């Protein structure tokens, strides 16, 4: 039960972090698809192990919609919560959604749905009183957002005053602020010419533009707006469908995108989805799927909501896009643990606005499975819209220039014969700290947050120290002096003093962090904690044997062999004993 508890805590922590990066900072570091995968895994665990709540687990994420606001803007409370949407990129989930709706409505079969695009921008809530725009806010945590009223005034497509008949006294209008692809291109070109950092995609550009402290900057960015819904909506006339309400909003001056459908057949929804998928590249704005909503307001109210999602709506997202390119080379990368990873280099391509030049092939097994040759044509996609991967080889395009890939038998850095791991397709260099390329990566990891955490001493400075002969093993970190550091270009007296102070502070290190910092093959943070909990003393860990390791939960034969081989290496053992003499290694019960 403890391991399940830890998994749920870890997943919740990940979700909250990614919510903060997406909703608060507008700087997502994973794709929506990857986020959904993590979230669905959490929901599965919470539903399967409902009794876990008896362990006083912190509040479930089911009640959290977005993330907290930034403190550079004042708060704005939504009249009605801005709920998120249940989402998936799998068609069977849409079919299951339809069945679930009909079951809740006593098997009524003729349910009408309203379907439109899922715009990839920044969701905003506009509040009108007596027909005048008085405030505007971001989604925030779904209940309280950031007041961005002044910047919203800078977007021409958002009416400051509603015109028409039957205008409600109070009204919340919801929609997406976005930047056209063409305007995004011009913006990045101008930023390159002025020496500024470019935006990675139109969504980030729109979000950054909308959160400017100076509304004049927002005005210059040419932001656009589409209405997709509403919060508070009370009128004197009968508007009992989502479509009717959007039509009314359009009559009042709000822009509604023209590509939508109303239908009562799943096949029609899927046709709309497939057309959107095919035509998305032709649009001058980004979409990442479609949204399907029960059209009847009465049925929406009857179906209600869970804490985070309305039961009457779902987002069906697009799967990863494939782009064709040509393999021009295969290189072999040596990781910090010595594992050799083949990397496919291809002619640069753009996938979802991101330039991609290479993709990992993981091991010899993948090369053989794909039957890949240099000069082959391949389809590349971004898994989860993040990690480049090769989908398949276009064998029919292979010609006489194709070259078979030869996996090296020796390490390309130190020429040591490579050793096959327990599986027949993976190889690694056993030289550890003696291998220059491997040692370089090990030193960076040793000083990182996952290692002993020497702050202020980043990758660039470590490279400089290695090149100047000041750093060759982890022990050398603790022989550095202020005088030595000030001789390195770019490291002045002030930074030198800070680094030496931080090195001194890093000497107090927990046993699990120390084990993790060594870079033992297959031993990451989780396994390091298990090892620390079992041995509690670093001396006991160094005296371990295969039998002792085999009784530790999560430590299988491969990990046990890796640990034994690493500890028995004379050079590794010498470095470890020197570190033990320098560091104060302590055990923290976890």
In short:
The protein has 590 residues and is an alpha+beta fold. The chain is built from 21 helices and 20 strands.
Describe the structure.
With 590 residues, the chain is an alpha+beta fold. The chain folds into four domains: 2-63, Helix hairpin bin (Helix Hairpins); 75-317, DNA ligase/mRNA capping enzyme (D-amino Acid Aminotransferase, Chain A, domain 1, 2-Layer Sandwich), CATH 3.30.470; 323-420, OB fold (Dihydrolipoamide Acetyltransferase, E2P) (Beta Barrel), CATH 2.40.50.140; 433-586, 5' to 3' exonuclease, C-terminal subdomain (DNA polymerase, domain 1). The protein contains 21 helices and 20 strands. A five-stranded mixed beta sheet has the order 2-11-10-3-9. The protein has a five-stranded antiparallel beta sheet with strand order 14-13-12-15-16, with helices on one face. A hairpin with a 2-residue loop joins strand 4 and strand 5 (132-138). Helix 1 packs antiparallel against helix 2 and helix 16 packs across helix 17. The longest helix is centred in the first third of the chain and has 23 residues, at 2-24. It starts with a helix and ends with a strand. Mean pLDDT is 86; it is low at 54-72.
């Amino acid at each position: 039960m403890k391991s399940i508890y830890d998994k749920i805590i870890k997943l919740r922590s990940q979700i909250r972090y990614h919510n903060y990066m997406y909703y608060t900072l507008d700087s997502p570091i994973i794709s929506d698809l990857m986020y959904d995968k993590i979230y669905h895994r959490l929901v599965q665990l919470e539903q399967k192990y409902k009794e876990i709540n008896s362990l006083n687990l912190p509040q479930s994420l089911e009640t959290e919609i977005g993330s907290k606001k930034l403190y550079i803007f004042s708060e704005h409370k939504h009249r009605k919560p801005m709920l998120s949407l249940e989402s998936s990129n799998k068609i069977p989930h849409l079919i299951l959604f339809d069945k679930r709706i009909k079951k809740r409505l006593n098997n009524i079969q003729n349910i009408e749905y309203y379907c439109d695009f899922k715009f990839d921008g920044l969701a905003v809530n506009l509040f009108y009183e007596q027909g005048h725009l008085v405030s505007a806010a971001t989604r925030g945590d779904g209940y309280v957002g950031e007041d961005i009223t002044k910047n919203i005034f800078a977007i021409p497509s958002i009416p400051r005053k509603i015109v028409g008949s039957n205008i409600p006294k109070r009204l919340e209008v919801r929609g997406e602020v976005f930047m056209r692809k063409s305007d995004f291109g011009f913006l990045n070109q101008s930023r390159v010419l002025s020496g500024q950092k470019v935006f990675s995609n139109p969504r980030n550009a729109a979000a950054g533009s909308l959160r400017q402290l100076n509304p004049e900057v927002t005005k210059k960015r040419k932001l656009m707006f589409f209405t997709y819904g509403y919060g508070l909506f009370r009128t004197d006339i009968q508007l009992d469908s989502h479509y009717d309400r959007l039509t009314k909003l359009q009559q009042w001056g709000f822009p509604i995108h023209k590509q939508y459908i109303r239908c009562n057949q799943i096949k029609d929804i899927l046709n709309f989805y497939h057309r959107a998928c095919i035509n998305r590249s032709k649009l001058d704005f980004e979409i990442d799927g479609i949204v399907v909503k029960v059209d009847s307001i009465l049925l929406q109210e009857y179906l209600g909501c869970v804490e985070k999602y309305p039961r009457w709506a779902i987002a069906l997202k697009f799967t990863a896009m494939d782009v064709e390119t040509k393999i021009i080379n295969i290189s072999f990368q040596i990781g910090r643990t010595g594992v050799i990873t083949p990397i496919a280099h291809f002619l640069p391509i753009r996938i979802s606005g991101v330039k991609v030049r290479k993709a990992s092939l993981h091991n010899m097994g993948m090369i053989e499975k794909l039957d890949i040759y240099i000069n082959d044509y391949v389809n590349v996609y971004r898994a989860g819209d993040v990690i480049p991967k090769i989908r398949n080889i276009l064998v029919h395009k292979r010609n006489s220039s194709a070259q078979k890939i030869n996996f090296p038998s020796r390490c390309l850095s130190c020429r040591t014969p490579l050793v096959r791991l327990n599986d027949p397709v993976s190889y690694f260099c056993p030289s550890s700290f003696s291998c220059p390329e491997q040692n370089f990566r090990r030193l960076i990891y040793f000083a990182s947050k996952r290692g002993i955490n020497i702050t202020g001493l980043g990758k660039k400075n470590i490279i400089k120290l290695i090149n100047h002969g000041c750093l060759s093993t982890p022990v050398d970190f603790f022989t550095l002096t202020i005088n030595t550091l000030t001789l390195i270009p770019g490291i002045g007296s002030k930074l030198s003093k800070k680094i030496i102070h931080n090195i001194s502070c890093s000497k107090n290190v927990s046993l699990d962090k120390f084990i993790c910092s060594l870079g033992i093959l297959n031993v990451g943070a989780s396994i390091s904690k298990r090892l620390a909990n079992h041995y509690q003393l670093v001396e006991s860990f160094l005296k371990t044997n295969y039998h002792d390791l085999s009784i530790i939960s999560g430590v299988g034969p491969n990990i046990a062999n890796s640990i034994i081989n690493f500890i028995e290496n004379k050079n590794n053992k010498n470095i470890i004993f020197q570190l033990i003499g320098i560091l104060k290694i302590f055990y923290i019960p976890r």
